[in-house]
Specification:
about 250 residues, alpha/beta, Rossmann fold, seven-stranded parallel beta sheet, 8 helices, 7 strands, globular
Length: about 250
């Protein structure tokens, strides 16, 4: 798929990796970009650009009705970027209750699933298009400090594979993007060094154009992925040392 001339929708576009995706899409010549966030006021910095290609939409990915409404409001989308995410950084056992785990599943798993289901018919009508699911390397290994987040991303990786198989007949490509720690508000409590959001967005879009199923953006991620391929138990044992604080 060629990004130039595409019509994209980015969830969680107001900051971090989502903002970097919008910047990169503009550079690569996307013809229209639906920028979404729960609070439309958080998109004000983009709107100051006065670029007619940027179209703001209010979207809470945890609400299926809003996902369906977004698909109706943006029927011309050819590239769906599921970027919105949430991490509470609690352990599975040390967390005070299940509220954070439920929120992580709502945002990180049910959100992308709802968006994929809502936009699939429109993508089919456009000739297939593509979907980017921003996951995490923690979809492959589990960090106890982010135990329930890791579980939500592992679930999202599973549904990515399933959706890819189900939508292959309509020509829709689905790219799983699995970075290690990124320099964002969400990632600030993770170990250094960290990737830049720009690295993640640029290499994810490279993957879309190359027809990749999976992208491990940044040299740091590629090194970690190579180590995991060679010794998955060893990498998991190392990551398992990052324990949560007791609350």
């Amino acid at each position: 798929m060629n990004i130039n001339g595409s019509v994209a929708l980015v969830t969680g576009a107001n900051r971090g990796i989502g903002r970097a995706f919008v910047d990169e899409l503009l550079k690569r010549g996307a013809s229209k970009i639906y920028i979404t966030a729960r609070d439309p006021a958080s998109l004000s910095e983009f709107l100051k650009l006065k670029d007619s290609r940027l179209v703001p939409l209010t979207l809470d990915v945890t609400k299926e009705a809003e996902a369906l409404a977004a698909a109706a409001d943006a029927p011309d989308v050819t590239l769906l970027i599921n970027n919105a995410g949430f991490a509470g950084f609690h352990g599975a056992i040390s967390a005070p209750d299940l509220s954070t785990a439920r929120q992580e599943m709502e945002v990180n798993y049910f959100g992308p699933l709802a968006l994929i289901r809502a936009f699939a018919p429109g993508l089919a009508a456009s000739g297939g298009g593509a979907i980017v699911n921003v996951l995490s390397f923690l979809s492959l290994v589990t960090m106890p400090k982010a135990g329930t987040y890791s579980a939500s991303k592992a679930a999202a990786r599973a549904i990515t594979r399933s959706a890819r198989a189900e939508l292959s007949s309509q020509g829709t490509a689905i790219v799983a993007v699995m970075p290690v720690q990124v320099e964002t508000d969400m990632g600030r409590d993770l170990p250094e060094p960290r990737l830049t959001p720009q690295e993640v967005a640029a290499e994810a879009l490279d993957g879309v154009e190359a027809g990749a199923d999976e992208v491990f953006p940044g040299e740091l991620t590629r090194q970690t992925a190579a180590a995991f391929a060679k010794d998955p138990k060893g990498v998991q044992a190392h990551v398992a040392m990052v324990l949560p604080e007791r609350v």
